[in-house]
Amino acid sequence: MISTPICDILGIQYPIFQGGMAWISDGKLAGAVSEAGGLGIISAMNANAEYLRGQIKIARELTDKPFGVNIMLMSPFADEVAQVVAEEKVAVVTTGAGNPSKYMKQWLEAGIKVIPVVASVSMAKLMQRVGATAVIAEGGESGGHIGELTTMALVPQVVSAVAIPVIAAGGIGDGRGVAASFMLGAVGVQLGTRFLVAKECGVHQNYKNKVLKANDIATMTTGKRLGHPVRSIKNPYSKEYLRLEYSGISDEELEAYGRGSLYRAAVEGDEKTGCFLAGQIAGMVNREQPAKEIIEEIFREAETVLNGATKWVK
């Protein structure tokens, strides 16, 4: 069985994280992934302390294994959810959309392992300096908010730049992607889109169907004008957003158009006005499976690929 240093550091069986997806990664999904041997992650998204405490309670009812919380640092509730994870002493905090330095002392004193998502070498180096346990190097193939570099280019540069473990994310959907990530120097992977179709994922069925029906060119990127590019599945909403982005509409009006779109997709299943975030691997996903089955299948394939990695080398 594949085991890497991140398994020992976090006390998990498989070196796989489930991405912290807003309105999707709740206590039920995180608990199922952790119970299956990976690291489940609850998304704190734009929710308040009460919501997060409730989701942590749900996860703890499902598993006694380590799980994490993802904190979106642009959230208006960032300060209070940062306090909640310290009080609850969750095993791991991952962060996105900002710099978590202001919270590091508080989290480290609570015994929390902090693993920020980074999209550049400079941010990875900063996170190492402020005490991060590891970093998640996420390429632009991922769903949701994305950076400029691809996973293939970003991961090896981050691995070369820092001494802490690196988790690869973006464009990874099966064992081949896991094996490739290890070859780039990563010691683990984070998957989001693949877990969208986990049986335990409570996202609206219309959202799952969008992923299951996707092909290789099903996603598009919008939001570059506002400095926060996002990858989502093409639909009437995303196409209209792209049109507005290059029209005479103001930035304020464009932001207003995007408000609530992910909720409408994930919770209401609105196929016309919802934003269905998904990575470029959506076209590789063809069925719903329990989280345990997803993880075991991915690592069986990864072992096969790694065992045969030298078959073409002479």
Automatic annotation (TrEMBL):
**Which keywords has UniProt assigned to this entry?**
Flavoprotein, FMN, Oxidoreductase
The UniProt gene name for this protein comes to fabK
Q: Which organism is it from?
A: Anaeromassilibacillus senegalensis
Top-level taxon of origin: Bacteria
Q: Does the keyword DNA repair apply?
A: no
| Listed InterPro entries | Aldolase_TIM, Enoyl_ACP_red-II_put, NMO
CDD domains with a match to the protein in the record: NPD_like (cd04730)
Stated name of the protein: Probable nitronate monooxygenase
Function comment: Nitronate monooxygenase that uses molecular oxygen to catalyze the oxidative denitrification of alkyl nitronates. Acts on propionate 3-nitronate (P3N), the presumed physiological substrate. Probably functions in the detoxification of P3N, a metabolic poison produced by plants and fungi as a defense mechanism.
Carries keyword Flavoprotein?
yes
